[in-house]
Amino acid sequence: MSTTNGAPEKSDGAEARLGAKHDARPETSDAPASRKKAGREGLKTDSSEAAIRLSGVTKSFGLKNAVDNLTLVINTGSVFGLIGPNGAGKTTTFSMMAGYLKPSQGSLEVLGFAPSQVDQLRGKLGVLPQDALLPANDKVGEFLVDMARLQGIRADDATRRARDVLQEVDGATWWATRCGALSHGMAKRVQLAQAILGDPQVVLLDEPTAGLDPRIAHEVREIIKSRKGRCTLVVSSHNLAELEEVCDGAAILDRGRLMASGTMADLTAATEQVRFRIPPPSRGEAVSLSPTDANAPSAPMVAIRELPMVTLAEYDDERGELIVHFDRTKPEVDAEQVIGAVLWILLQQKVRISGVSKGRGLEQRVMDLTDQP
Amino acid sequence: MNPLLETWLVGARDLRKNVRSAKGLVMFGIALLGAFSSTFRLPKLEEAMADVNKFGPEQVHSFKAQAFGKMYGDDPTGEVLASAPTKLVVLFYIAVWLAPLLVMIIGFDGISSDLQYRSIRYWASRARRPSYYAGKFLSLWVIVGMVTLLMQMIIWAVTIARADAPAGETVLWGLRFWAASLPITGAWCGVATLASSLFRVPMLSLLATCATFFVLFIGGLVIGKGGDIAWARFLYPNNFDGWIIGGNHERMLEGLGVCLAYIVVTTGIGSAVLMQRDV
Fold first, then answer.
1. How much is the ipTM here?
2. CA A110 to CA A116: how far, in whole Å?
3. pLDDT digits (tens, 9 = 90+) for A340-358
4. What is the CATH number that goes with domain A3-265?
5. Per-domain residue ranges for chain B?
6. Nearest-CB residue to B122 (from A95, A116, A147)
7. Which of A10, A214, A289, A292 has the largest count of CB atoms under 10 Å?
8. Which pTM value belongs to this model?
């Protein structure tokens, strides 16, 4: 594993690992701290615990590198997100993990085996491909039983397991329905059912909620969350709020390169800063966080900066956002404590507050990392 | 998991899909059409045979032996076939002649449609690709075998109903003809499955299958059998129907060997390509 210790680093040859911080940009925190955090979240960092390991993986289509020298380790038991804009290489990376595509260079292992070693991975790897149509003429039950049998589940047990998993996705009544007659939402849940059929150790989900209405998307997220801790989950999605909700860690890709990876808290800096939405004061309200006319800090800012746990406090006039950094190395200090203390000051100073968040938000992080030419 | 079980699971599912889909109805229609069109041609054959039948049984046998010998380009084969019910010999000839067409219609999208809609991904993470390929090939072969058997059975029924030949003799010869057509259809199925596995678009696969069959037809029948280049006859599996059905064991084995070689080579190439390609 390469060591970056927060130094600027492009993804060429870089290794990223859930729980460690290896980023394309300088980070404000050091790797050991993030490992400590990973440990708190149950993410193992021992290399022997890797569920999926990509080493210098490149995938080329003609002259274009869809994935460029990607190194990534996803630990056993984690829920890991693949994030990035269109063309970032998420689905290509996902497809290589699933064994659909062969890397042009580099090596890739799932549970210690190449994804093409189907027999060794039988029943251990479940995959929800993004755009693979279900066989239209198969009935849902038959399809799932066939899949179960190919996973090595005995004939007398396959039907029961298939019914159980269909029940889990709330589709028990679709058993005799032809796959071609399913709506998009129903088909997606059947696809999810085949992916989690037989309780595989690693489950890869490519855009599991794409095109679903909010209610069904919520149900699918609940199913994914219910699998947490039972297997290693890799979720590729455009829906950042969804990933932030379900994932322990993530890798941010852009144009085939790894831009950042780590625990979700590391990526969003949720363990080192809190943000307060402070709208500009309306007419008649004198309290503002902006510096005074003499360029001196406002009274609330002075009070906040005097808090012992605060290392830095800034007010962004354009965004109307107060960003408070705190000392994450002290175990007695956490984001909730900082939020309480800062809120107390702001309320005392009669500052209007419209929102509070831990960290900068995944969306902002992704925007920061992927909008460069 | 045993690769044979994997192959069986893939093949059985594909068989079920083929029988149940619109394609199944088309196949049933082809079987009926093939059988009844052959049946409707029988009066013409009977007219021709009526003149022959005026002669004694030995002369009829001799005439048939000569005619079939000419048809298959091999006198001993003609001699063997002279003992069979004439209608079944004619049906066998037609069935083998039409086998490439039947295989092409049924098999052109076997793998290419799975590639096009990426349904293959559900199998790719569960079954070894050679097993998937072999399952697809076998299901196509079984389906084509079932269609030709259905055609045969209709002709048997007509033959028995019209008392043209004893029932036992009809069924035994019928089964023999059907069994003899299997290796030949197997060879064609091998070529069709290979062509189907190379393209993501079924229409391209159909065109490629059609073009390949045509090249094999020209190479094997026109240049090989009809021309001077002896080895070219091995390009066309239909050239070996007479050898397989004839009484000469050596030739029968040679014919079976050619068909088996087709199956092994095409399945080997197809599996190897599928293993290497992105799906």
1. 0.84
2. 10
3. 999 999 988 888 888 998 8
4. 3.40.50.300
5. 3-40+85-276, 42-83
6. A147
7. A289
8. 0.81
